[in-house]
Specification:
Layout: H1 33-45, E1 51-55, H2 62-77, E2 81-85, H3 88-101, E3 107-109, H4 118-125, E4 131-134, H5 135-138, E5 150-153, H6 160-164, E6 169-172, H7 179-189, H8 195-202, H9 209-212, E7 216-217, H10 220-223, H11 227-238, H12 242-251, E8 258-262, E9 266-271, H13 280-283, E10 287-292, H14 300-305, E11 311-313, E12 326-330, H15 338-351, E13 354-359, H16 362-374, E14 378-380, H17 390-394, E15 398-403, E16 418-422, H18 430-437, H19 442-457, E17 467-473, H20 475-481, H21 484-487, H22 492-505, H23 510-522, H24 525-540, H25 549-567, H26 571-584, H27 591-610, H28 616-630, H29 635-638, H30 652-671, H31 677-691, H32 695-708, E18 712-714, E19 725-728, E20 731-737, E21 746-747, H33 749-756, H34 758-764, H35 766-769, E22 776-783, E23 787-788, E24 800-803, H36 804-824, H37 831-844, H38 848-856, H39 860-863
Parallel strand pairs: 1-10, 1-11, 2-4, 2-5, 3-4, 5-10, 12-17, 13-15, 13-16, 14-15, 16-17, 20-22, 21-23, 22-24
Antiparallel strand pairs: 6-9, 7-8, 8-9, 18-19, 19-20
Helix pairs in contact: 1-2, 7-11, 15-23, 18-19, 22-24, 25-26, 26-27, 27-28, 30-37, 31-32, 31-36, 36-37
């Protein structure tokens, strides 16, 4: 065998952009101007810093920039370079682009490290080629890539879950392998939850829309005493569960530095910030380069990566106004009913060969798949196109439907020109959901949410010449895109596109929306003249920064140091770091986040107290009290008093009202606050149902009215069952609807006996109603009659009376108040709005405690005549 000749030594030019000119297999002539500017800026300002973030807008070619910088460093410093992607599909996509478009030889690594090609491994280790792989291939307990010199993080804004997953344990209720462990932990936690929340955790409560969004966190003062039992239970079960075992090895001895979140689908354990400093392959690299379309203002990138000091290189001049491609937004729910919206989506799918649907969860994905299949389309999920999009591109009619995947999968050019977004990609894990829904700390995540939204709308516009229609559904997402405040935070070109789309979607018909879509898709002279409206709006728009962003950026290093000290059980240091964070959070928009950090400071001090550190008991009490007092509209903080006896507990009345307002907020956001269609439809059905002479229609409307007022309202069809019941906190109103009776008739003994027996039915069916022994139950009779038969009176002594016409008038007034509150609702977790709503409900007597006393104060035996 002949000896192989050694290749000539590789020479690194003075700038990465010049490497492309040396690649004979490239299909592009050179880098674009802005790409070259970014690479030259990197050489001058950042090649020697440990952490640097490069901002290049979606579709502007950041993958090429990252690859050329990585190749330049590999040649210049002879060091191993790893290029990280969120998914296997993106690894394949990057390798294909490098080889076929740029003429750059790289190696892709997917699957287990045992399956990696031996020659490719040798090339990487000897710094002969860049390795392209997933975040998970680096962030695991024993990675092959254990000593990289440079790490390039592509789509860094999407890396949080991939990085944090190394220190996260998701014990899923519906997973057969997890089921026994989930049940054992649920039993341990049960005494810390009320009956309703325990039912949600275990799945005994129906998975309604409101319950599906439920999230809870075990307060540290509650979790600390059971941490050893928690550990022992997991130890007993986790050994045979591969997807939990490795994370548990990292978390087991660090539970004091973690949080336990509960949702209907899982028990989720993770630290506040991923402790990447404990992972040598990441922290020991000479440099980490973060590629992102947005840099996560407010310290978001630092929180995602656990790195406190990241140098930022902003987008080149001009990209503050220039967008990528053209989007035509359609908002069908601004003008169409729910059924008409479905018909429009189907009609649009039938007008094109390929569509992409992005949704926030599997339930929505299945709905989208059913719509696509009903028109004969072939449906593809993320796994089906992971290795190749060939089947999707060649199908006669294809729909790609992805759940919770808002970035990374690209469909440039003619691959797809119709994108559906159904639902706001607000939170992707239980911790984020808790921050937003429970703590009112959405200011922390607004940059992250905005990035996901921007990434989502750009899936089909990957170059300047691309164009795509974007159909937006879901109340929260429609509201997000039409809020003047949130709109001002977006790129001027996107602002203009959204404004134009909203104007075309209001007061229009399905036929007109389809006609506009056809004009856009022809992309001819007619659209060119219309497009000038968008350009004019873009030139007049300005991009604002959210309030509090500067403060969030300023405190992020202290937040990371808090997590480091907590991980090391240096509780005094952690409390000190939390104090530094609190000193910097003074903006009113950060009220909820400030309350969270008082809680975190109290949690660290409580651990210090239990470890015998002097002075920590006082500091724990001080911070927990400050957390509770910082935001009276946060119901979760009031629960701390159950576990810290020195804190004054919230009254049952306040707790019930807070739960009502949280549920009202969630309902209004789901229906949408910036457009009328969905909310008006529900409101109309309630009003019509309460006027109806049909008993079933009346009962359904009565139940929906309770939900509209923030109660846990339900009804159940069975023998002797109540009509609807309304629950909030410890208060339960259970109704007997006698709405179909003639005004001239009398209430019979059977009806009276049935109404009086409803509390017993509720208790006997606690598994269904989710009330507990300490729930106060008031039966209420809603009736048009003014008389009762003699045999009825012995049963009416405990039954409240609500004359039908009074109830109807009260319902109209209550709906008017809800509509008034709806006008001022902004984001969820809006603490000022919650306080306003609580005050309004108390003033009007719509809170559970007031209503309970009012209806219990008028007994049917006194209000009805013989």
């Amino acid at each position: 065998m002949a000896f192989k000749s050694a290749p000539p030594p590789e020479v690194a030019p003075d700038s990465p952009d010049k490497i492309l000119l040396e690649l004979p297999r490239r299909k592009i002539p050179s880098v674009l101007l802005h790409q070259g500017q970014m690479m030259q800026k990197y050489v001058v300002e950042a090649q020697s810093v440990t952490d640097v973030a490069l901002q290049l807008p979606t579709g502007s070619g950041k993958t090429l920039v990252g690859l050329l910088i990585g190749e330049w460093l590999r040649r210049k410093n002879h060091e191993p370079v790893v290029f990280l992607c969120p998914t296997r599909q993106l690894v394949n996509q990057v390798v294909e682009q490098a080889e076929q478009q740029y003429g750059l030889s790289v190696h892709g690594f997917i699957g287990s490290k045992q399956s990696f090609d031996a020659a490719a491994k040798a090339d990487y280790q000897a710094a002969r080629r860049i390795a392209v792989t997933t975040y998970s291939a680096l962030f695991n307990i024993a990675p092959f890539f254990d000593t990289p010199g440079v790490i390039v993080c592509d789509d860094a804004h999407a890396s949080e879950n991939y990085i944090a997953s190394m220190w996260s344990m998701r014990i899923q209720r519906a997973n057969n392998e997890h089921e026994t462990l989930h049940s054992a932990l649920a039993a341990l936690i049960q005494p810390l939850l009320d009956g309703t929340d325990f039912g949600r955790l275990t799945g005994s409560i129906d998975d309604s829309l409101s319950d599906a969004a439920w999230v809870e966190k075990l307060p540290t003062p509650a979790f600390a005493p059971i941490a050893d039992e928690f550990m022992a239970i997991v130890d007993q079960h986790v050994g045979a569960i591969d997807d939990l075992r490795y994370a548990w090895r990292l978390l087991r001895d660090n539970l004091h530095a973690c949080h336990v979140y509960l949702t209907p689908s899982e028990i989720f354990v993770r630290p506040l910030i991923p402790p990447t400093w404990t992972h040598a392959p990441f922290t020991n690299a000479r440099q980490r380069i973060y590629m992102s379309a947005t840099l996560g203002e407010g310290g978001d990138l630092e929180r995602l990566t656990g790195r406190p000091n990241i140098t930022r290189l902003s987008a080149p001049a001009g990209w503050d106004r220039q967008g990528i491609g053209r989007r035509f937004f359609i908002f069908p729910e601004m003008t169409l009913t729910a059924d008409q919206t479905i018909d429009l989506r189907k009609a649009l799918m039938q007008r094109v060969q390929r569509s992409v649907v992005l949704v926030p969860n599997d339930r929505k994905r299945k709905e989208a798949e059913a719509e696509a299949e009903s028109i004969g389309a072939t449906v593809f999920d993320a796994g089906a196109i992971e290795d190749s999009k060939t089947a999707f591109l060649s199908a006669p009619r294809a729909v790609a439907a992805f759940a919770n995947r808002y970035d990374g999968i690209d469909f440039p050019g003619d691959e797809c020109r119709l994108l559906f977004l159904d639902g706001l990609p607000k939170t992707t894990n239980a911790q984020e959901r808790f921050f937003v829904a429970k703590m009112g700390a959405n200011a922390l995540l607004q940059g992250r949410i905005q990035t996901r939204v921007v990434q989502a709308v750009g899936r089909c516009t990957r170059s300047l010449q691309d164009y795509s229609a974007v159909v937006v559904t879901g109340g929260e997402l429609t509201d997000y895109f039409n809020s003047p405040v949130r709109l001002s935070f977006l790129h001027p070109e996107l602002q203009a596109e959204l404004d134009f789309g909203a104007r075309q979607s209001v007061n229009t018909t399905q036929a007109e929306l389809l006609e506009n879509f056809d004009i856009f898709m022809r992309n001819d002279a007619t659209w060119e003249s219309v497009n000038r409206q968008i350009l004019a709006k873009r030139d007049a728009a300005t991009q604002e920064k959210p309030s509090g962003v500067g403060q969030l950026q300023a405190v992020v290093a202290a937040e990371i140091n808090y997590q480091k000290n907590l991980w090391q059980k240096h509780y005094e240091g952690a409390v000190e770091n939390a104090g530094q964070v609190l000193a910097g959070l003074t903006d009113t928009s950060l009220q909820g986040y400030r309350a969270l950090w008082n809680y975190l400071a109290g949690s660290a001090a409580a651990y210090g107290e239990s470890s015998g550190v002097a002075g920590m008991k006082v500091r724990a009490r001080t911070h927990f009290a400050a957390a509770r007092d910082a935001a009276g509209a946060i119901r979760w903080l009031a629960s701390l008093a159950r576990f810290r006896p020195e804190l004054v507990a919230a009254s049952p009345d306040d707790s019930a009202l807070q739960s009502q307002i949280e549920r009202l907020e969630a309902l209004l956001l789901r229906l949408g606050t910036k457009h009328e269609a969905r909310y008006a439809q529900v409101e109309k059905s309630i009003v019509a149902g309460l006027k109806s002479a049909d008993a079933t229609e009346f009962e359904v409307a009565h139940c929906e009215l309770g939900k509209m007022l923030g109660f846990e309202a339900a009804r159940h069809e069975s023998d002797a069952s109540p009509d609807p019941w309304w629950i909030a906190g410890k208060y339960c109103l259970v109704f007997e609807d006698h709405s179909g009776a003639l005004v001239s008739s009398s209430l019979g003994a059977d009806k009276a006996r049935q109404a009086a027996g409803h509390p017993n039915w509720m208790l006997a069916n606690a598994a269904l109603t989710h009330i507990t022994a300490d729930t106060a139950i008031q039966p209420v009779l809603v009736t048009p009659v003014s008389r009762a038969e003699a045999g009825a009176f012995p049963h009416l002594a405990t039954v409240g009376l609500w004359p039908l016409e009074q109830f109807r008038a009260w319902a109209r007034d209550a709906l008017a108040v809800v509509r008034q509150l709806r006008r001022t609702l902004g984001d969820d977790g809006d603490l000022a709005w919650r306080a306003e709503a609580q005050a309004m409900f108390e003033q009007k007597g719509y809170d559970a405690a007031s209503l309970f006393r009012k209806l219990g104060g008028v007994k049917a035996c006194d209000g009805l005549k013989r």
